Amino acid sequence: MHKWIMSGVFFAACALAIVLMFTLPGKEEVEQEAKPSMPEVAMDAGQAETLVKANCISCHGDQLQGGVGPALANIGSKDDVEKIYSTIVKGKGGMPSFKGRLQDEEIAHIAMWLAEKK
């Protein structure tokens, strides 16, 4: 009887492994999700500044000097626009994700505006 139980458990484990192999995302799909692609937009500095004032200054300060969140006044000298975009979309550390709160184009405007801060 013990032999039949072990055979059943082994069969169930193999079946589960096969199902997972075909349903879990592959490495390429995970990397694609991990690195969001920034949409092509022409930067609108006025819109970006308005969005930053409405969404970012409570943590990063009214002059982007930092506060609860890190200073962003010179963020463009250490991070490129793609990294800034990705951080805003996905969040990082204590920073929440803004995907779903802001449109992708709005996030792109903010990222491009911040990338110019050097």
Q: Could you characterize the architecture of this molecule?
A:
The protein folds into 2 domains: 2-27; 35-115, Cytochrome Bc1 Complex, Chain D, domain 2. The chain has helices spanning 2-23, 27-34, 45-55, 57-60, 81-90, 104-115. The model has no long low-confidence stretch (mean pLDDT 89). The termini are far apart. It has 6 helices and no strands. GO terms for molecular function: electron transfer activity; heme binding; iron ion binding. This is Cytochrome c550. It holds the Pfam family Cytochrome_CBB3. It comes from Paenibacillus polysaccharolyticus.
Task: Write out key terms for the chains shown.
118 residues; mainly alpha; Cytochrome Bc1 Complex, Chain D, domain 2; 2 domains; 6 helices; 57% helix; 0% strand; elongated
List the helices and strands and how they pair.
Blueprint: H1 2-23, H2 27-34, H3 45-55, H4 57-60, H5 81-90, H6 104-115
The number of strands is 0
The CA-CA distance between the termini, in Å, is 72 Å
Quaternary state of this entry equals single chain
- Our estimate of the beta-strand percent is under 5%
Low-pLDDT parts are none
Computed CA radius of gyration, to the nearest angstrom: 22 Å
Question: Which class of the largest domain in CATH terms?
Answer: Mainly Alpha
Q: What is the CATH superfamily of the largest domain?
A: Cytochrome c-like domain
Number of domains: 2
Q: For the report, how would you describe the main beta sheet? A: none
Structural class: mainly alpha
> Which second-level CATH architecture of the largest domain applies?
Orthogonal Bundle
Helix content, binned percent: 55-70%
CATH topology of the largest domain: Cytochrome Bc1 Complex, Chain D, domain 2
Q: Spell out the helices and strands N to C.
A: HHHHHH
Shape: elongated
Mean pLDDT: 89
The tally of helices reads 6
GO molecular function, one term: iron ion binding
GO cellular component, one term: membrane
Binding site for heme c: 56, 59-60, 95
InterPro entries: Cyt_c-like_dom, Cyt_c-like_dom_sf, Cyt_c_BACSU-c550-type, Cyt_C_IC, Cytochrome_c550/c551-like
